[in-house]
Design brief:
Blueprint: E1 13-16, E2 19-22, E3 26-27, H1 43-55, E4 60-62, H2 71-80, E5 88-93, E6 95-96, E7 104-105, H3 109-123, E8 128-133, H4 142-154, E9 158-164, H5 168-177, E10 180-186, H6 195-204, E11 207-211, H7 223-232, H8 236-247, H9 260-268, H10 276-282
Helix pairs in contact: 1-2, 3-4, 4-5, 7-8
Length: about 280
């Protein structure tokens, strides 16, 4: 793609600490196999998808060591290394996959140290741009987990820290330990339970990364979304993503897919502007 603004750049930029990224990012969870387990059926096609995401202007890629596990990180390195200037890769640790349908918290310091070293090796990095604690572990004091990541940041293995699936209280606790540049919580048209966390992120200038930005499809079946899409000549998915962008200046959506057609559809949502009446209808 040459000349002009790339599709994913049409929504402007956002700061992750001292890093500037386009506000329509790419979630790399679905490049792994079914149930986010094992290798994809067509590995070359997933490498091609990752290259296409970069071509479309996505310059923040979100992944995690639990996606596959390890598959998403490995594929990103296979497809994009050596990384072009300006590409920001964020990964996460603190969830483990003992089997296909399990996602177990592990916030023990010894696990997080191994997790960071593993991600560095798989991504072929000397320092991870953004490392997010994937989920609080009820068996480990939250401060102990975040404190371990802060130590690894001081050791030069992590540039910026984020947290995921947290409450406002946990965000405050994390901020008392280290500088936090991002929060990744579930958020979409149908699930706004993290409105208070989003408000805290706005107050402190922290990027809010909504996972399940399309609500696993639930939001797209809404009559309100369908009507807005029809009026705008857009798809329901594009309306749902445009709504997120309009919801807050710190919002950083990370729609993911294993389809290039859906990837291009999602990237185009960065240019979609909802009218005040659309926003009022969608709530």
């Amino acid at each position: 793609m040459s000349g002009g603004i790339k599709p994913a750049a049409a929504a402007g930029t956002l700061q992750l600490g001292d890093l500037t990224v386009n506000r329509m990012a790419f979630g790399a969870m679905r490049v792994a196999g079914p149930d986010i387990w094992g290798d994809p059926k067509d590995r070359p096609a997933m490498r091609q998808l990752l290259v296409r995401a970069l071509e479309l202007g996505h310059n923040f890629f979100d992944t995690a060591d639990s996606y596959g596990p390890h598959v998403s990180e490995i594929l990103i390195a296979e497809a994009l290394f050596p990384y072009p200037k300006g590409l920001v890769i964020g990964t996460k640790g603190g969830l483990v996959r003992p089997s296909r349908h399990r996602w177990d918290e592990d916030g023990r310091p010894e696990h997080l140290r191994r997790a960071v070293d593993g991600s560095l090796k798989r991504l072929r990095l000397e320092r991870i741009d953004l490392y997010q604690f994937h989920a609080p572990d009820p068996k480990v004091p939250f401060a102990e987990s975040v404190g371990t990541l802060a130590e690894l940041q001081r050791a030069g293995k992590i540039r910026h820290l984020g947290v995921s699936s947290v409450t406002v209280r946990q965000l405050d606790e994390a901020r008392s330990i280290a500088s936090i540049v991002s929060v990744q919580n579930e958020y979409n048209l149908k699930n706004r339970e993290s409105d208070d966390v989003l408000a805290a992120c706005e107050k402190f200038g922290i990027a809010f990364i909504p996972w399940y930005p399309l609500g696993a499809g639930r939001a797209l079946r809404s009559a309100k979304v369908k009507r807005a899409a029809e009026r705008l000549g857009a798809t329901p998915a594009q309306v749902a993503l445009a709504w997120l962008l309009a919801r807050s200046p710190v919002m950083l959506p990370i729609p993911g897919t294993s389809s290039i057609a859906h990837l291009e559809e999602n990237a185009a949502a960065a240019a979609l502007r909802l009218a005040p009446e659309d926003l009022a209808t969608l709530g």
